């Protein structure tokens, strides 16, 4: 990278690093806070207060690119497939069923409300998989623009926060501890929201919920491949030229690291890698939050919020019915 490019990238990159690390430190003050959620919120607040400052844009774009990729790869150390395989198969099937139902409803309502398809896809990924992380990772797979990411990120963050507050206030919602853990894990958007809602009952419920949420997070690799393949076919139809199937290399690396960890392969400094994953991913989502453009809502209006709400309510309905049928 030339000196000129470094000079352009440095201001925004440093801003993301400082704010992202601040978010990590703030989250460390309480068990109820999650670094990734704090990072997104701080990023949105800073963008709202500062507005669009051109001097920071190149660095923030660079930070989103490298931190999302590096963060996801490092996050693979938390991807314990042994823990996933020990989960009740009926619960895993329920997770997949909820994800399929959410995607179907969100895409159908997006078309009915004439919402941009890419916005709908990102809302689907964020609701079905793992919130802001899924939006950040899948946006390049669908060639999502800044407005699509902005809308999806804000909607997912608002609904996830509201859901967490409701769950905490009324926990365990008339369910057993096991049932409540499954409900949190299958319906709340981000891991941080799941942790907070489940912890309101007990540490045991939190651990159970996070194990199930881990499976949802692992499905990020599947949805990234599916959406990438879908986009390649769309590009082929539009250009008339054969397009290579774009499997994101960092998604492959994410799964590979998870497989190595699950197989018992000793990874030096694994504990530090887990901490680094949280810090780097927090910086990535801070950069994503800083890219939020409120003007995107001028045209879209409340339609994305209604689409996201219907998708989330679908998740709750399907999960609740499934829980009563298969979870004791």
Word description of this protein:
With 328 residues, this protein is mainly α. The chain has one domain. 78% of the residues lie in helices and 0% in strands. The relative contact order is 0.19. The mean pLDDT is 91.
Write a concise keyword list for the protein shown above:
globular, 15 helices, 78% helix, mainly alpha, 328 residues, 0% strand
Helix and strand content put the structural class at mainly alpha
Number of helices, counting only DSSP H or I runs of 4 residues or more: 15
What are the secondary-structure elements, in order, as H or E? Answer: HHHHHHHHHHHHHHH
The portion of residues assigned to helices is over 70%
How many domains make up the 3D coordinates? 1
Largest sheet: none
Strand content: under 5%
Span of the ends, CA to CA: 57 Å
Low-confidence blocks of residues: none
* Average residue pLDDT: 91
Q: What shape does the CA trace take? A: globular
DSSP E strands, number: 0
Rg, rounded, reads: 19 Å
What layout of secondary structure does this protein have?
Elements: H1 3-27, H2 35-50, H3 57-75, H4 81-85, H5 89-112, H6 117-130, H7 132-138, H8 146-170, H9 177-187, H10 191-199, H11 203-239, H12 249-262, H13 270-290, H14 296-300, H15 303-326
Helix pairs in contact: 1-2, 1-3, 1-13, 2-13, 3-12, 3-13, 5-6, 5-15, 6-7, 6-8, 6-11, 6-15, 8-10, 8-15, 9-10, 9-11, 9-15, 10-11, 11-12
């Amino acid at each position: 990278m030339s000196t000129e490019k470094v000079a352009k990238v440095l201001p925004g990159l440093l801003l993301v690093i400082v704010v992202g690390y601040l978010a990590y430190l703030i989250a460390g003050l309480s068990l109820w806070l999650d670094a990734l959620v704090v990072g997104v919120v701080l990023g949105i607040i800073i963008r709202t207060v500062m507005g669009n400052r051109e001097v920071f844009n190149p660095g923030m774009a660079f930070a989103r690119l490298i931190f999302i990729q590096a963060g996801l790869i490092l996050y693979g150390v938390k991807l314990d497939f042994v823990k996933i395989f020990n989960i009740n198969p009926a619960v895993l099937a329920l997770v997949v069923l909820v994800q399929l139902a959410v995607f179907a409803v969100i895409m159908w309502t997006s078309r009915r409300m004439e919402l941009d398809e890419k916005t709908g896809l990102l809302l689907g990924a964020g609701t079905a998989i793992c919130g802001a992380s899924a939006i950040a990772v899948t946006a390049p797979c669908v060639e999502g623009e800044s407005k699509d990411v902005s809308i999806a990120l804000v909607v997912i963050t608002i609904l996830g926060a509201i859901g967490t507050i409701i769950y905490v206030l009324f926990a365990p919602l008339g369910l057993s501890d096991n049932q409540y853990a499954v409900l949190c894990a299958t319906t709340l958007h981000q891991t941080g929201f799941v942790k907070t809602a489940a912890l309101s009952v007990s540490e045991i419920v939190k651990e159970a919920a996070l194990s199930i949420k881990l499976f949802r997070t692992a499905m990020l690799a599947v949805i990234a491949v599916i959406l990438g393949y879908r986009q390649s076919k769309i590009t082929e139809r539009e250009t008339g030229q054969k397009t290579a199937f774009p499997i994101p290399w960092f998604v492959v690396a994410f799964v590979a690291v998870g497989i190595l960890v699950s197989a018992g392969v000793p990874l030096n400094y694994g504990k530090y890698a887990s901490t680094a994953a949280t810090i780097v991913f927090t910086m990535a989502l801070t950069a994503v939050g800083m890219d939020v453009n409120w003007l995107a809502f001028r045209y879209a209006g409340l339609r994305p919020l209604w689409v996201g709400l219907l998708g989330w309510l679908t998740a709750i309905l399907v999960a609740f019915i499934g829980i009563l049928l298969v979870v004791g």
